[in-house]
């Protein structure tokens, strides 16, 4: 599903560029649940941004289901990302002025899903994630765990093939974190490929493979 070949990312600094990723060779099969671990500054979020097609400023090759992502324009890359990738962030990134239901509808609006179908999909998501009673609330009226649950529901409402999660339990207490990770396991069991960045060994055990980054290099576990 995913193949990175010789991927490097650098930022301009003096006297020489600073590399955030170095010669990354990585293959991820459809249906895997992969964890990325490493110290702060290792390049984990940078790798996630490239996988999520949020960052096209890299060298090397990125193949997604046979599509050469590295050869796409920014517009083409954005279209591919919208139709194939869901992202969950540590900070939730819900829109404060929108209700739970309206936040869930956003990815569908971006994909120009017709209004009636959009309403049906939002209704299904509210039911599936047990959010029906929260649909008219605003993010500030929810607990951290509930906000992250909405963020996960929003990330998967458009049936992405790939779900990316950057420290998804970092702002949650342990019980909430376990609930989110159990949800990820269920989503992976339904066929969604997941790549998560985490510092938590417990979270890492929810996946089927762990890769390690250090100073931008993939290293043995």
Q: What does the overall shape look like?
A: globular
On the 0-100 scale, what is the average pLDDT?
Answer: 95
**What Rg is obtained from the alpha carbons, in whole angstroms?**
18 Å
The percentage of residues in β strands lies in: 25-35%
- Helices and strands, in N-to-C order? EEEHEEHEHHHEHEHEE
Number of domains: 1
Q: Helical segment tally?
A: 7
CATH 2nd-level architecture:
3-Layer(aba) Sandwich
- For the biggest β-sheet, the strand order reads 6-7-8-3-9-10
What name does the CATH topology carry?
Rossmann fold
Assign the CATH superfamily.
P-loop containing nucleotide triphosphate hydrolases
Largest sheet: 6 strands, mixed
Structure description:
With 221 residues, the protein is α/β, with parallel strands linked by helices. The protein has one domain (2-219): 3-Layer(aba) Sandwich (Rossmann fold). Helices cover 35% and strands 26% of the residues. The protein is built from seven helices and ten strands. It has helices spanning 44-51, 74-84, 100-110, 115-128, 144-156, 174-189, 201-204, and strands at 2-11, 18-28, 33-37, 59-64, 67-68, 85-88, 162-166, 193-197, 209-214, 217-219. The strands form two sheets. The chain has a six-stranded mixed sheet with strand order 6-7-8-3-9-10, with helices on both faces. The mean pLDDT is 95.
């Amino acid at each position: 599903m995913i193949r990175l070949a010789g991927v490097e990312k650098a930022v301009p600094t003096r006297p020489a560029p600073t590399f955030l990723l170095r010669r990354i060779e990585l293959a991820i099969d459809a249906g895997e649940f992969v964890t990325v671990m490493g110290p702060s500054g290792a390049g984990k979020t940078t790798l996630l941004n490239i996988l999520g097609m949020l960052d096209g400023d890299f060298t090397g090759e990125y193949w997604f289901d046979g599509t050469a992502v590295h050869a796409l324009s920014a517009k083409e890359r954005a279209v591919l990302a919208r139709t194939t990738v869901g992202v969950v962030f540590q900070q939730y990134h819900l829109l404060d002025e929108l209700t739970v239901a309206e936040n869930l509808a956003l990815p569908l609006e971006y994909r120009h899903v017709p209004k009636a179908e959009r309403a049906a999909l939002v209704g299904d998501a509210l039911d599936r994630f047990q959010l029906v009673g929260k649909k008219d609330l605003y993010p500030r009226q929810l607990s951290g765990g509930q906000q992250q649950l909405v963020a996960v529901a929003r990330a998967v409402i458009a049936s992405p093939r790939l779900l990316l999660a950057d420290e998804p339990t970092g702002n949650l207490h342990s019980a909430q974190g376990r609930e989110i990770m159990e949800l990820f396991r269920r989503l992976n069991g339904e066929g969604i490929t997941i790549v998560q960045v985490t510092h938590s060994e417990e979270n890492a055990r929810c996946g089927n493979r762990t890769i390690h980054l250090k100073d931008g290099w993939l290293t043995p576990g």
